[in-house]
Design goal:
Elements (H helix, E strand, L loop, with lengths): L5 H31 L6 H8 L3 H8 L2 H22 L6 H18 L1 H13 L4 H25 L9 H20 L6 H14 L15
Helix pairs in contact: 1-2, 1-4, 2-3, 3-4, 4-5, 4-7, 5-9, 7-8, 8-9
Length: 216
């Protein structure tokens, strides 16, 4: 028989229930935003999807835009975490291909919501602007570390700036993402892979020319 105070158990149960409700609301919001778009979505429909009252949704997230930011951030955060944890040991080009495919897979599963995510993550007001910026910063730092590991393996020249390389990756990624969202390019992953491959060619170690044989 547990000696844990009853009040502590009840607090733990309430916290678990609150977290489960919040998760259900976020998933319902993502489904509704994808189905009808952000502007047409309403809190009552989202609440119905989640099996809760509209008041419960407001209690957890305040208003529709706050709910949008929470839903987008939470989902993307989990996708990025899984993508980075699932990377193999190298080479760098393969690691970046895996990362790109996983993240674009997330965007492509919900194309309508992806347009909203792109806009909101780039132009959100505080505090969400800082949260989305920190999210990108975490991935940028991970890519910079991957570049340093590639230098240690001899894949890249010594002295290659990992932070600049990470910035280059994001410039390629966002260019492809914007092109895809606008309908200008049907294969964004292949575009990023080709851009990265070409960029890496300029960062590889230079090979010393083979000595010429003396003529007899």
């Amino acid at each position: 028989m547990s000696n844990e105070p009853k009040s502590r158990k009840q607090t733990g149960v309430r916290a678990t229930q609150k977290a489960a409700t919040g998760k259900a609301v976020l998933e319902a919001a993502r489904e509704e935003f994808e189905h009808v778009g952000f502007e047409a979505a309403n809190l009552r429909a989202i609440a119905a999807r989640a099996g809760v009252s509209a008041g419960t949704v407001l209690h957890h997230y305040g208003d529709k835009r706050e709910l949008l930011h929470a839903a987008l951030f939470d989902d993307l955060e989990e996708t990025l975490r899984q993508a980075l944890e699932g990377l193999g040991p190298g080479p760098l080009e393969k690691q970046l291909s895996e990362l790109t495919r996983t993240v674009f897979g997330y965007y492509q599963r919900r194309p309508k919501l992806s347009r909203t995510l792109l806009k909101e993550s780039l132009f959100a007001d505080e505090p969400w602007a800082g949260k989305f910026t920190a999210q990108v910063g975490g991935v940028h730092g991970a890519i910079a570390r991957l570049a340093q590991e590639a230098i240690a393996r001899g894949e890249l020249r010594p002295g290659v700036d990992g932070a600049l390389f990470g910035a280059a990756y994001f410039s390629f990624f966002y260019f492809a993402l914007i092109s895809w969202v606008q309908g200008a390019h049907p294969a964004p992953v292949a575009m990023v892979e080709r851009l990265i491959g070409q960029h890496l060619e300029g960062l590889r170690p230079t090979r010393s020319p083979s000595p010429r044989r003396k003529e007899r």
